[in-house]
Write a structure and sequence with these properties.
This protein has 25 helices and 29 strands. It is an alpha/beta fold and 755 residues long. It has three domains: 258 residues, Rossmann fold, CATH 3.40.50.740; 219 residues, Dimethylsulfoxide Reductase, domain 2, CATH 3.40.228.10; 130 residues, Barwin-like endoglucanases (Beta Barrel). A hairpin with a 6-residue loop joins strand 20 and strand 21. Helix 2 packs across helix 18 and helix 8 packs across helix 12. The structure holds ligand MGD (2 copies) and molybdenum atom.
């Protein structure tokens, strides 16, 4: 057995590369397994340690050549003392806060070789590091929910699938529940249940409303009614639905009085007492493009049925992303069905396979991350700001903070040149530190922008234990492939560095990898009170933690008795108006949900020059940037470029045809992509998913199709400072002449090419 973020499987080297068979117990295995074919090849792999020539010859220091320089091959025996010396210098001269070890990223499944835990333990053993908080996934949603319901329960403990499948009559899905996304779960997923649960609900007679600019955000078999909303305007639509409920006496006054605070403020805003604008269907229709009559009708349907309001995480991965989450919750509160089986609110159903599967009780076998005495982590998506503006102040969740002075960046298990916005700016930011270290199995753009590149093994090249919070099994991840080239496990790399730096005992605790696996297993077994022993587990390949997801209803206890089970908010109630948030005085996130016009949407002045709204969503054919050169991802490319989808009318207006190589651009940058015409898109909207490996030409144009050259590097608001990468305004035109070759998977100058 083995495990990945997109499913468990068995694999063996075969005649045509790696032969992969999905785990037999998985009724709905992920097509992303189709990218593993390249795992047995050396394509795009880092074969040995490398050091950037400019850094080697001129020493550490800010350097605009990062990402354009050539590399010098090194032996492990030379690179380990070299890097150890540099770490010693930086810690001694600048202290631990000067080391950025946030190292955001998904890495691979597997609890011991979890790259971020490894790098955090290692840097912790050296005295600590500046870390990061929150995620690119749902930074705004989680921080907002902490304030308004006192926890992230709508994300981490939402009503589970069996309950929805049985009780929900109407699913109103803002952003849908994209089938492509349910295939993935952080830490692994052995049984994919999302599609099956939705099918069951449909069979029972549940109806679905999809509110999204893109039709395929819900499975076709669910027969959804599609409301092709203008991107970034969901809050306006939600406000108008709420307005109708209020106007027509359909709001549940009893629920709002007993379980919520601040509805009077929301009501005043809805009816126009606050700002003179009634948030009527006619008002919203002008903003969101959904006709007023349809808004009226939907509001009445919602009030007349057991209704689940669900919002994808994409809604909050955009400017003012706090608002649709808050307003979605407020809308559900007005329906009075929070805490009722099948009704209420969810945030992120379908975003990950685990959402709605319920949590397994008790601990999991995980590697302790160790201590980090350095406080004041940065909000994760503010990394370029931190590098570019050391010592400058910024606002975050009610605090005024100062960016640290970062001198060394250490990344292990993430790909910032995949996940961050405005990559041209990120390049400038990466020119600032004195040293950048990256561990990765592959020559990613982040590795290319490093000074020291250390080749990690891939998960198939090592033994590990797989487990995830919302999954049914603990998986024995058996080593399947020999190591490529001179790749080493991150653990071994850190152990060697720790030895050189005199902290071996603190880091390794004297254990080999195998001893660690047994140790983590035994510790888990004791605390979870399990009978199995390691050897039996290892040969069986799996341990079942449960057979089925539990039946759980969000806010059920709170509903039963809000005095005995108050929420962890200042009022103990759902805060539709938050005195805490209001007290921060942020005009970009005031005290109750509001419609705020983002700088980039189809109604903004900027749309005169860039009239298309880009949806840069998570990719259907891979996990982020991982295995972009794998078979399933490669098959989706158009003339070697990432597909950009567009409505045929928008294409015709530009004289474009299916299969054209096009240039997608705005003031921040440009990329090439391959055109796919599709009526699944609302007119005026184009979709270019994330994850094509960044491949900048001399002018910084990504010739492969990474949308993060186009997105804007700005926080959701001063409250959450979340990632806003989902949206940008762009224009699209035909690329004249022969497009340049894509070289993203070829090694950089000086490095050997894998086979
Ligand atoms: N425009 C835009 N941008 C976005 C988003 C968006 O919606 N729009 N979505 C955002 C979201 S939600 C997320 S979560 C981020 C994801 O961003 P990331 O998590 O950074 O993306 P991955 O491609 O998964 O990067 C993981 C890296 O770890 C490496 N790796 C795998 N296994 C190992 C290992 O064992 N050891 C080491 N050292 N490395 C390993 C992989 O090769 C890969 O380079 O992207 C964000 N970026
Ligand atoms: N196959 C695959 N699955 C994944 C991932 C992956 O890389 N590949 N990444 C995983 C990760 S880390 C995360 S965080 C989740 C992310 O989960 P989400 O954030 O939910 O995923 P996205 O695909 O970015 O966006 C979902 C859909 O929202 C719609 N949308 C965009 N903007 C708007 C808007 O303004 N209004 C409305 N109503 N809809 C909008 C888009 O059409 C898009 O397809 O996905 C996870 N699942
Ligand atoms: Mo994410």
């Amino acid at each position: 057995m083995h495990s990945s973020h997109f499913g468990a499987f068995t694999a063996a080297p075969g005649d045509d590369g790696l032969e992969v068979r999905p785990y037999a117990g998985d009724a709905d295995p992920s097509p992303l397994l189709g990218n593993l074919d390249v795992a047995a090849t050396g394509r795009a792999r880092v074969d040995r340690p490398y050091v950037r020539r400019g850094w080697l010859e001129d020493g550490p220091g800010p350097d605009p050549r990062r990402g354009r320089d050539e590399f010098v091959p090194m032996d492990w025996q030379d690179v380990v003392p070299l890097l150890a010396r540099e770490l010693r210098r930086v810690y001694a001269t600048h202290g631990p806060a000067a080391v950025f070890g946030g190292s955001y990223g998904w890495g691979s499944a597997g609890r011991f070789h979890h790259a971020q835990s490894q790098v955090h333990r290692f840097l912790g053993s050296l005295g600590g590091y500046t870390g990061s908080v929150e995620t690119y996934s749902l930074g705004a949603g989680r921080i907002l929910l902490q304030h308004v319901v006192g926890s992230d329960a709508p994300v981490s403990a939402p009503t589970t699938w069996p309950v929805l499948a049985e009780h929900t009559e109407l699913f109103v899905c803002f952003g849908g529940m994209p089938p492509k996304n349910g295939s993935v779960n952080s830490g692994g997923v052995t049984r994919h249940r999302t599609a099956g649960a939705l099918r069951e609900a449909r069979r029972r007679g549940a109806r679905f409303v999809l509110v999204s600019p893109i039709r395929d955000d819900l499975a076709g078999e669910l027969d959804a009614e599609w409301l092709p909303v203008v991107p970034a305007t969901d809050t306006a639509l939600m406000l108008a639905l709420a307005y109708v409920l209020e106007r027509d006496g359909l709001a549940d006054g009893e629920f709002l009085r007993r379980y919520c605070v601040g509805y009077d403020r929301v009501r005043a805003y809805l009816v126009g007492e606050e700002d003179g604008v009634a948030k009527s269907p006619a008002w919203a229709a002008q903003v969101c493009g959904v006709p007023a009559e349809e808004i009226e009708r939907l509001a009445h349907r919602m009030a007349g049925h057991r209704t689940l309001v669900t919002a994808t995480w994409s809604l909050q991965r955009a400017r003012y992303g706090e608002q649709p989450v808050w307003m979605g919750l407020a809308l559900a509160a007005m329906l009075g069905q929070l805490g009722v089986p099948g009704g209420g609110f969810g945030h992120g159903y379908g975003a990950l396979a685990g959402v709605g599967n319920g949590r397994v009780p008790g601990p999991l076998p995980t590697l302790p991350r160790g201590r980090n005495p350095v406080g004041a982590p940065i909000p994760v998506a503010r990394v370029a700001d931190a590098l570019l503006h050391p010592g400058e102040p910024y606002e975050f969740d009610g605090e005024r903070r100062t960016y640290p002075d970062l001198r060394l960046v250490y990344w292990c298990g993430g790909n910032p040149f995949h996940h961050h916005q405005d990559l041209t700016r990120l390049r400038r930011a990466f020119a600032r530190p004195e040293t950048v270290v990256v561990h990765d199995p592959f020559w990613t753009a982040s590795a290319r922008h490093a000074d020291v590149v250390l080749p990690s093994t891939i998960t198939l090249e090592r033994d590990d234990i797989g487990a995830a919070r919302e999954d049914d099994l603990v998986v024995a991840m058996h080593r399947t492939l020999p190591r490529y080239g001179e790749a080493r496990d991150d653990y071994e790399i850190f152990a060697a560095l720790a030895g050189e730096l005199g902290v071996a005992d603190a880091f390794t605790e004297g254990r080999t990898t195998e001893q660690w696996l047994r140790h983590l297993f035994d510790r888990w077994r004791r605390s979870a009170d399990r009978p199995e022993d390691f050897d039996a587990f290892w040969s069986a390949g799996e341990i079942a933690l449960r057979a089925e997801p539990p039946r759980h209803v969000l806010f059920e206890r709170f509903r039963a008795d809000p005095d005995a089970h108050p929420l962890r908010t200042p009022s103990g109630r759902i805060e539709l108006w938050s005195s805490t948030v209001a007290g921060f005085g942020y005009d970009d996130c005031p005290g109750h949900p509001v419609w705020l016009e983002p700088e980039e949407w189809l109604g903004a002045p900027a749309a005169a020059r860039y009239p298309l709204h880009l949806v840069a969503n998570n990719p259907a054919t891979r996990l982020h940037s991982q295995l972009d050169h794998g078979g399933y991802s490669a098959a989706s490319k158009v003339r070697g470029r990432e597909p950009v989808r567009m409505h045929p009318d928008d294409a015709a207006a530009r004289g474009l045809r299916d299969g054209d190589v096009v240039r997608v651009f705005n003031d921040r940058g440009a990329c090439l992509a391959g055109l796919v015409c599709s009526t699944a898109l609302r007119r005026g909207v184009v979709q270019l998913s994330t994850g094509a490996w960044y491949d900048p030409d001399a002018d910084g144009v990504c010739v492969h199709g990474n949308p993060n050259v186009l997105t804007r590097d700005v926080g959701t608001s001063r409250l959450a400072q979340g990632c806003t990468g989902q949206h940008a305004l762009v224009q699209v035109e035909r690329y004249p002449g022969d497009p340049p070759p894509v070289t993203a998977y070829d090694p950089p100058p000086g490095a050997a090419s894998g086979t």
